[in-house]
C-alpha cells in the first residue's frame, strides 16, 4: 500500500492516480507507509491548510455579525427586548421551561438571513477545500455545517412566520443537528469505501 501525499488515502501498490483525490502518486521512500516522518510532515502541511480554511470560516462568521449589527436597524435593542420578554412556561406536569411571551418576527428574520448567508459562505469554503484537496474530514465537517446552517435558517424563518411553535422549533433544531452529524459520517464512510 502507498499513501497519497495530498489526501493521505490508501492506494494499491503500482497505482498512478490517487483513488480519493485524483492526484498523481509519486513513488519514492518518502511516501511509503513505513516511512512515517515525511508522511507525518505531509499530513501536517495538509492540516495547516485546513487550519487556514477554518480561520476563513471563523473570520466570515465574525464579519457577517459585524455587517448585520451595522446595517440592521436596532438589532441590539431587538435582542435585548427578546431576552427581557422571557417567561417560564409549563410544558408538562411540574416541568417549566423558558420561552418568549410574544413573537419577535423582525429578529427571527434577521437570524434567518444570517444563517442562509453563512450557509452559502460554507458552500464556497467547501469548494475551496476541494480545490486545495483537503482531507475528507475537513470536507465532511463543512458539509455538515452547510446542512445545519441552511436548515436552521429555514427553521427560524418558520418561527418568524409563526408556522412552528417555540418548543417544537427547538426539537426540530436538535433533529437537524443530528442529521448534520449523520451527513458528516456518511461523507467520511463513502470516501473510505471509495478509497478501499
Strand residues, percent = 5-15%
Low-confidence stretches: 29-47
Number of helical segments with 4 or more residues: 5
Q: Biggest sheet, in brief?
A: 2 strands, antiparallel
Instruction: Give the N-terminus to C-terminus distance in angstroms.
Output: 11 Å
- Major β-sheet strand ordering: 1-2
The number of domains is 2
Strand element count: 4
What is the overall silhouette? elongated
Q: What structural category characterises the helix and strand content? A: mainly alpha
Q: TL;DR?
A:
The protein is mainly alpha-helical and 196 residues long.
Explain what this protein looks like in three dimensions:
The chain has helices at 36-71, 75-84, 105-131, 136-160, 166-195, and strands spanning 2-3, 10-11, 86-92, 95-100. α3 (105-131) runs antiparallel to α4 (136-160) and α4 runs antiparallel to α5 (166-195). The radius of gyration is 22 Å and the shape is elongated. The strands form two sheets. The protein has a two-stranded antiparallel sheet. The protein has a two-stranded antiparallel sheet with strand order 3-4. Helices cover 65% and strands 9% of the residues. The longest helix has 36 residues, at 36-71. It has two domains: 1-34; 49-195, no CATH class. The protein is mostly helical. A hairpin with a 2-residue loop joins β3 (86-92) and β4 (95-100). It has five helices and four strands.
Amino acid at each position: 500500500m502507498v499513501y497519497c501525499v495530498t489526501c493521505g488515502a490508501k492506494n494499491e501498490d503500482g497505482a498512478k492516480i490517487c483513488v480519493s483525490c485524483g492526484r498523481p502518486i509519486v513513488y519514492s521512500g518518502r511516501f511509503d507507509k513505513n516511512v512515517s516522518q515525511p508522511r507525518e510532515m505531509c499530513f501536517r502541511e495538509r492540516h495547516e491548510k485546513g487550519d487556514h480554511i477554518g480561520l476563513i470560516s471563523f473570520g466570515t462568521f465574525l464579519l457577517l455579525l459585524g455587517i448585520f449589527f451595522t446595517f440592521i436597524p436596532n438589532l441590539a435593542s431587538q435582542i435585548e427586548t427578546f431576552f427581557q420578554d422571557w417567561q417560564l412556561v409549563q410544558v408538562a406536569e411540574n416541568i417549566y421551561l423558558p420561552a418568549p411571551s410574544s413573537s419577535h418576527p423582525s429578529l427571527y428574520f434577521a437570524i434567518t438571513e444570517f444563517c442562509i448567508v453563512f450557509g452559502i459562505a460554507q458552500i464556497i469554503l467547501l469548494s475551496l477545500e476541494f480545490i486545495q484537496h483537503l482531507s475528507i474530514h475537513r470536507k465532511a465537517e463543512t458539509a455538515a455545517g452547510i446542512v445545519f446552517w441552511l436548515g436552521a435558517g429555514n427553521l427560524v424563518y418558520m418561527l418568524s412566520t409563526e408556522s412552528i411553535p417555540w418548543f417544537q422549533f427547538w426539537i426540530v433544531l436538535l433533529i437537524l443537528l443530528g442529521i448534520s452529524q449523520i451527513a458528516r459520517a456518511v461523507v467520511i464512510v463513502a470516501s473510505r469505501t471509495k478509497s478501499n
